[in-house]
Amino acid sequence: MIEFNDVSVTYSSTGVDALNNINLTINDGDFVFVVGESGAGKSTLIKLLQKEIDATAGQVSVNGFNLTKLRRGRVPMLRRTIGVVFQDYRLIPTMTVYENIAFVMKCIDAPKKYIKKRVPYVIGLVGLSHKASSLPEELSGGEQQRVALARALVNDPQLLIADEPTANVDPALKYGIFELLKGINACGTTVIVVTHDLDNVVHFGGRIIRLDAGNVTIDKVVGGDE
Amino acid sequence: MRATTFTGLIGQGAKGIWKNRMMSFASFCIMLVSLLLVGLTLLLSINLSRIVDSLESKNEIVVIINDGTTQEEITSLGKSIESLANIEACNFFSRDEAWKSMVENMSGDQKDLFPYDEENPLPDTYRVQIQDLESLNTTSVQISAFPNVEKVKSPNEYAEIFINIRNILTLVSAAIVITLVIVCLIIISNTTRASVFSRRKEINIMRYVGATNSFIRIPFFIEGMLVGVLAGLASLGLTKFVYESIYNLVTSNSVKIFSTIGLTSIYSFGDISKYLTLAYILSGAIIGALGTTISTRKYCKV
């Protein structure tokens, strides 16, 4: 569960108010689209969720961690409950698909046996079993996005954040990515999708949170076309 | 942390040296030269201390007593000398004993020059051993002031020179050690920074998936420590070569002056090799690890 209580963020370096007095609750298992123009506060919201930055005012709580009181040393424990899919994928170019995904399990000291079992499973889940030995440069944009998704899922996070997951993907593959995210959500994982892509939002439906100049202007559930 | 994970991180650290070989080599060279200079300076310092100690242990002031001094006056003088603060031992050496000892040490030809029936020309003396060589002058002056003392002989020239060199060297070596350690830390820290930069993508991912600070930093720490240990070992080899060359020169019989001024009492490399090995490896490892820590604390924050 995610809770924002009267949360404001002002960047001290620029004096910009990125978020103003936000109040939000996202329940476990929700599927949420966060939409808004550039500079609306979407990235700040994601940074807050991962405790990359701290709120200037108010309280943030994510997956049972009170981020206002969370000590630096405990931040890795919070992040182990969150999977992130980056807009630019951020795959390690010198590692194969398998190694990229196994790497994040090694980072949290997962047992070798479990890694050997779990990695092929998630690669299969995103439909890339035949590409397990390929390097990122040998994959298309859509395939790289699916690897990034598999990597975000492999540690079985409670919350999955996808930052513009379809921004660099061929239009024909966009639906496939959203279908995958919906499937993950159906298994109980909370999914937050940050996107500009309103067509897909309308098509798939779900809870939409719209940010404008750091304020929540819309927070409602819409039905999809499906 | 699992043992296999830990050994994996050590492997990553070792690989990091190769990946970042130019900077690692630069760090290695700087540390090698620094440790060599620091080591040789410290060796010089401890050997000078040993020479001074050796001179101190041999040091003897010879108090020459006026001719015609009575036995009571001689005994009184002995008590006065013993009452001084810096006195280790004070032994009377009569003119007859001195004569006998001198004659016994003479060769046949020399004995002919000093026939036994000649009058003994030697004076009565006190042989005084002192505790602290640095106060030798003061003690000599104090004894000279006693009645019936003709002269005080103290072989303090070398001792004073060595004490001065030792004192200056202590200051110089401290300055050298501090400067070189700082240089090493800066170089290692920059090497680590380059290493962090080359692995920034991995580190970024590590941060997002919940790797702990120690997990991210250990490979760099190992990398810095390994470079330090390797530089320490290479430096030890060079020190051995340089030191043994000097030792052989100083202790060889061909140069008599060294034994005269007590230089032959310096340590052989074998005497101190255990401590040196430990010191070089530990210093290398500590400087390497510390330099890395400074850099990773700045650039590898979770």
Could you give the topology of this structure?
The complex is a heterodimer of chains A (226) and B (302).
Chain A: E1 2-10, E2 17-26, E3 31-36, H1 42-49, E4 57-62, E5 65-66, H2 75-79, E6 82-85, H3 97-107, H4 112-125, H5 141-153, E7 159-163, H6 171-186, E8 190-195, H7 198-204, E9 206-212, E10 215-222
Parallel strand pairs in A: 3-8, 3-9, 6-7, 7-8
Antiparallel strand pairs in A: 1-2, 1-4, 4-5, 9-10
Helix pairs in contact in A: 3-4, 3-5, 4-5
Chain B: H1 3-19, H2 21-58, E1 60-65, H3 71-82, E2 87-93, H4 95-104, H5 108-113, E3 125-130, H6 136-144, E4 149-153, H7 157-198, H8 200-209, H9 213-251, H10 256-260, H11 269-299
Antiparallel strand pairs in B: 1-3, 1-4, 2-3
Helix pairs in contact in B: 1-9, 2-7, 2-9, 7-11, 9-11
Structural commentary:
The complex is a heterodimer of chains A (226) and B (302). By secondary structure, chain A is of the alpha/beta class. Chain A folds into 2 domains: 1-81 and 158-226, P-loop containing nucleotide triphosphate hydrolases (Rossmann fold, 3-Layer(aba) Sandwich), CATH 3.40.50.300; 90-156, no CATH class. Chain A has 7 helices and 10 strands. Chain A has helices at 42-49, 75-79, 97-107, 112-125, 141-153, 171-186, 198-204; strands at residues 2-10, 17-26, 31-36, 57-62, 65-66, 82-85, 159-163, 190-195, 206-212, 215-222. In chain A, a hairpin with a 2-residue loop joins strand 9 and strand 10 (215-222). In chain A, helix 3 (97-107) crosses helix 4 (112-125), helix 3 packs parallel to helix 5 (141-153) and helix 4 packs across helix 5 (141-153). Chain A is globular. The relative contact order of chain A is 0.19. The model of chain A has no long low-confidence stretch (mean pLDDT 90). Chain B is of the alpha+beta class and 302 residues long. Chain B is built from 11 helices and 4 strands. The mean pLDDT of chain B is 82. Chain A binds chain B through residues 50, 72-73, 75-80, 82, 84, 90, 92-93, 103-104, 106-109, 111-112, 155, and chain B through 1-2, 4-5, 8, 201-202, 204-213, 215, 302.
